[in-house]
Amino acid sequence: MITFSFLKLLLLHISIIALISCSDNTSAPPDDNTQTYPGYNLVWSDEFNKTSLDLTKWNYETGTGVNGDFGTGQIDRATNRIENVSIVNGIIGADGSCLSITTRKEVYIDRNYTSGRINTENKFAWGPGHKIEARIWTKDIKYKGQGFAFWMMPNEIPTGYNYIMWPQGGEIDITEYIGSMPYHNLGSAHYAWFWNNNEYADWNHGHKGAYYSYSSQEVPISNPVWGGYPPSDNDVNAGSYEFHIYGINWLSDRMEFYVDQKIYHIHYFNDGAALNNTADGQDYDAVITLSGKRTMLSEYSNHFTEWHPFEHKMFIILSSGVGGDDNKTYGGAIVPEAVFPASVYVDWVRVYKKE
Predict the structure, then answer these.
(1) How many Cβ atoms are within 10 Å of 80's Cβ, its own excluded?
(2) Which terminus of the chain, N or C, has less C-beta within 10 A?
(3) Strands 244-250 and 254-259
(4) Which residues are bridge partners to 278 per DSSP?
(5) Is the pTM of this model over 0.85?
(6) For residue range 97-143, what is the model confidence (pLDDT) as tens digits?
(7) Residue 328 and residue 16: Cα distance in Å, rounded?
(8) Domain 40-354 belongs to what topology?
């Protein structure tokens, strides 16, 4: 198993989730130049072209999270202020307006940093049979301790329960970009090995993820380590250089992670599906060459019958933050030279349904 940073290892998703039916559709039309994909129909999007955040689609997530740090060693407080979450114009390379999520170094209530987090929980959620992607520029994420994520968490719970524990419910990290590794993105699936009566245990965590190199546009030969920050503004090999499209093809048996349409990690849900075609209870992974590119194959997340995490709907989260502890990941503790405010721009988020 690869050693990863910026993981939400202690995030306990214990909030009661309403059992609702989340629609695939939205009344807001996409831009005229929206990408089309054969065999898929666009069913939901936010182009962020209004004057403020569309609260029919998004919720603000405020505060400091689980155990006061969102479970990742963060030291910021998320707010719903326009200083942290806003719609902005004039961003180079954007198609119209953008969502801006900004972390700031400032004294606010009980913290010295502020941040922004929004999600679609209980408003819109999707599962297998969808392509989910966003066009993101991690422009100011350039120092150790700065990070941004485009990720998903469960919007469904098992019958007879009023919550689903993490990681039993699963977690999908489409974009995990941290300033301490400016040349790579991490795409991951988090899950549990045992149902464990829907209770949390720190040992009960399966994780399969792969890094994407912006330079080679594939899985790197060796896993990156912290360093190389800050990249210059004109460093084309850094994720902070320009907009990239981050997404997943979520199919019935697997999930394909991609950056700019280049698939670099395929996670299979069932034992034996990825590599050896033999169900042996092992969480295998291997890097192979597909279409001329290094690609990671991994398995498996359907470890128990009570809940197959990636066969259920999940909601989208967009979040930035500031790390405060090298031992709790999130790209490590913030360094003194880090520059704030640090903004990430999201041009759009789009969801397509497979025909």
Answers:
(1) 16
(2) C
(3) antiparallel
(4) none
(5) yes
(6) 999 999 999 999 999 999 999 999 999 999 999 999 999 999 999 99
(7) 26
(8) Jelly Rolls (2.60.120)
